[in-house]
């Protein structure tokens, strides 16, 4: 399970973002302290993000039919506890081309389509990894979702369908591209427990998370 792990962030070894060659890294986070015990038998509850050109990209939930893909500094996704990094390979793709790629992918991952079992952050990173490198992420990262899909009838309804209510807002980035940030969650009639909020989104109001604006069709 530990094969391919790297102890240091690739961002420190990356050249300038306009270089063509870049590492593709999977950064894995714990969602519960119980992972310290279950991890060694190949089971746990994890969040993951994929690091390319010195930035980490993940997928999170909100209530709107717009991009749920966000970027953060590598190994620093707020609300989660970093566990390890796994090297997925290297690709030849200029940053400008990758930016167009991630904006295109964002149109397929709207925040209101997030589902803990069928379309979560680990499904996103697996899809990204396969498109970029031809490889899938390690199976243990998303094993809980696969097991849940087999027995979803036994899961609480709130875990199957609930998304965290966060209002995405656009703002201008330094490179001239638009990005989104999360605003204060709005009230909802649905049941949103503290644990679900921790599982599905970064901490409320954290300005270190910027949602990617999807490409215009």
Automatic annotation (TrEMBL):
The keyword Mitochondrion does not apply. Residues 171-206 are annotated as: Disordered. Residues 22-159 form the PPPDE domain. One of its GO terms (molecular function) is deubiquitinase activity. GO terms for biological process: protein deubiquitination; proteolysis. Belongs to the DeSI family. This is PPPDE domain-containing protein. It comes from Corchorus olitorius.
